[in-house]
Model the fold of this input.
Amino acid sequence: MTRWRRLIRHGFLTRRAVKRRFTPTVLDRIEAAVSAAEASHCGEIEVVIETDLHERAILSGQTARQRAIEVFSAARVWDTEANNGVLIYILFADRAVEIVADRGFNGLVTADQWARVCRQMEADFAQAAWEQGALAGVAGVAALIAAHFPEAGRAGNELPDRPTIL
Done:
């Protein structure tokens, strides 16, 4: 897709469009899923849904991955005690999903494993199954975290469970 087509799509998308798909009820269910997932391991999951990118970001060619890394840093997902925070980033305008995991997962979870969770979420989103996709993403990430960071030694809830809409 060209930058100009992407710019137009991002420019016409409104926050209301996101809130129609991610209603307070859907956000409550995602929050409950994150809370339940975190009870099964000592990792931290944060979900961020961004409506669109600023026109400068689009014109400069910023990717969803690059933006996810910025959000990971700004939200301080990297600042957990065990370095086991995971960001599930949804760029709504592009229907793109990126997962950014802290350094505690280096050598434990492969990029392909994270990518499989992203692609499943994107497939659900393409079918307009927004809640299903988000819940499947939380479950997929939770399974990968639980395999390496079991509940023992949990430091407490270090990141918000409620999804953030940017």
Residues 130-148 form the longest helix (19 residues). The chain has one domain: 3-165.
